Amino acid sequence: MAIASDSIRRARPLLGTFVEIEIAGACRSDMDGAIDAAFDAMAQVHRLMSFHEPDSDVSRLNREAGLHPLAVHAWTFEVLDTAIELHRRSSGLFDVTIAPALQTLGLLPRLKDRPVPAPIAASADAIELLPDHKVRFRSTDVMIDLGGIAKGFAVDRAVAALRDFGVPGGMVNAGGDLRAFGVEPRAVHIRDPRDPGRSVCRIDVADEALASTARRVELFESREPGGSAVIDPGTQRPASRLDGVTIRAPSCMIADGLTKVAMISGTDAGQLLEFYRAGALLFSDGDVQITSDWYHRVHLAG
Amino acid sequence: MSWVRYTVPAAAILSAASPAYAVRYLSIEEAQKEAFPSATHFSEVQTGRVWKAEAAGKVVGFFVFDRVVGKHLFIDYAVALTPAGAVHKVEILEYRESYGGEIRSSSWLAQFAGKTSSSALKINGDIRNIAGATLSSTHVTEGVKRILAAYGNRLR
User: Fold this and answer.
1) Which member of B34, B129, B144 has the closest CB to residue A187?
2) pLDDT tens-digit profile of B122-144?
3) Given B98, B128, B131, which is nearest A210 (Cβ)?
4) Which of 3.30.530.20, 3.40.50.2020, 3.10.520.10, 3.30.360.10 would CATH assign to domain A185-300?
5) Residue A277 in contact with partner chain B when CB distance is under 8 A
6) Among the residues of chain B, which ranges form H helices?
7) How large is the ipTM?
8) Which of A178, A262, B66, B73 fits A173 for a cystine, CB–CB 3.0-4.6 Å?
9) Separation between Cα atoms, residue A143 and residue A98, nearest integer Å
10) Could you give the CA distance from residue A102 to residue A83 in angstroms, rounded to a whole number?
11) CATH placement of domain A57-137
12) Residue range(s) defining the domain that contains residue B118
């Protein structure tokens, strides 16, 4: 039997944020190997799905998938599949083809030798998934960004890698998109979206994922307070209904994706949350609204 | 799905612990060993900043310690470089964040002076995990670029 040692906790800069992994309950050499494998899996997701890396699947798709079908990695295919389902179930509110609007707002860089395409009408068939992990776009004007879902997927891959190494419990936190596994609950503090220096509540997380998003995206350099990186496809402008949301879901990819929908539709997202067995915390003007299945596990400050 | 609404009372917001957040992941020595497990000897090339890792008299890489200070951030990190000067690993050693401008005042910074690996700093020690909007790692990314520019070709 392996000798259990203390927990270990590591952090690396990945996915444009700080990724922290904390694990416990396995022998030290296994945990070191597991941590490396988990960070490697996340780096792989970044290489495949970054809008910024010219060789990523996402960049290849944006260049060529409007012209002919293109084979992508199984992970990219899985994320696209989930994104398309979320698009359909959210009546188009979750939309990975929002990239041109993000470029127009300066939230994504413009590509060399390519003007920003005019926004296209949101459509369920903008992205076509074909056999053998091939993908085709409806037109050359379709441009995707998986930034709204890939970070959550990376967290899920890291957890899978840790479990493959036999690690019984731990947590992966990618700048607020996090997932705990194992029996022991972990306390997570949620920042006040209007004042990130304060904790609004504590949530005990066990074997589930949490993802958060807020209007105030510049935590450290205040440029334009109140701006949001979540774009409403209906208006092509940042969502402004809520100050922030935190979503609980079985997987971090779903939690990550649902934060975008909830930022736009607020309490109207109830049915969608139920379908994905998810719960939500919505912040607006000093009010916190919590889904009824979850409120008993959310400990509000004060 | 039904919803339960709370109004967070202003007083509660004020009394809530400010989640100034700090974690120490690794000491410099621990990070050196993890970056270069085969190394038997680390020699200081530049005091407190650059080390050469050697195994059986052969250079296996370089270890560069750096610190970035942002408006609300204070991060110690290390870049392990291969003998050829490429990035082998970037590891965060210590992470501190705070709000209200303390980080810019010299007295706040002074509390870290002379800190040893045994004196792990804990502000509100029970706060271990924070979720919220994405934390920017831009400063570290820029720091790594700077290190590569400064040392990538110079250390041999």
Assistant:
1) B129
2) 333 333 444 443 455 677 777 88
3) B131
4) 3.10.520.10
5) no
6) 10-15, 28-35, 106-110, 138-151
7) 0.76
8) A178
9) 7
10) 17
11) 1.10.3980
12) 24-151
